[in-house]
Design brief:
single chain; mainly alpha; two-stranded antiparallel sheet; 3 helices; 2 strands; about 5% strand; WhiB family transcriptional regulator; 4FE4S_WBL
Length: about 90
């Protein structure tokens, strides 16, 4: 099993806190309990990327992915699977 460095552990801990705060505030975090974020199917992951668009933890998720050097799944609105680099495009309000 891979041992995370302190920065990675702190980043994931922060992400967990932000998720809990969002859920406690009644906000929807679309990846919770859904398999699309780690699916092998490109269509599923594309759906996950789109669902991230309005996620209240998008920024923290993206930061965590960078810190832990995530290389698979959908993190922060980006499909990190090799060859799939699809990113969410937020529309200006």
């Amino acid at each position: 099993m891979m041992r995370l460095d302190l920065d990675a552990e702190q980043s994931l801990g922060h992400l967990q806190e932000v998720i809990e705060e969002a859920l406690d505030a009644g906000q929807r975090v679309p990846c919770i309990g859904r398999p699309e974020w780690t699916s092998e199917a490109l269509d599923d992951r594309a759906e996950a990327v789109e669902a991230c668009q309005w996620c209240p933890v998008l920024t923290a998720c993206s930061a965590a992915a960078k810190t832990i050097k995530a290389s698979s799944g959908v993190w922060g609105g980006v499909d990190l699977e090799p060859g799939a680099r699809r990113a969410v495009r937020r529309t200006a309000a």
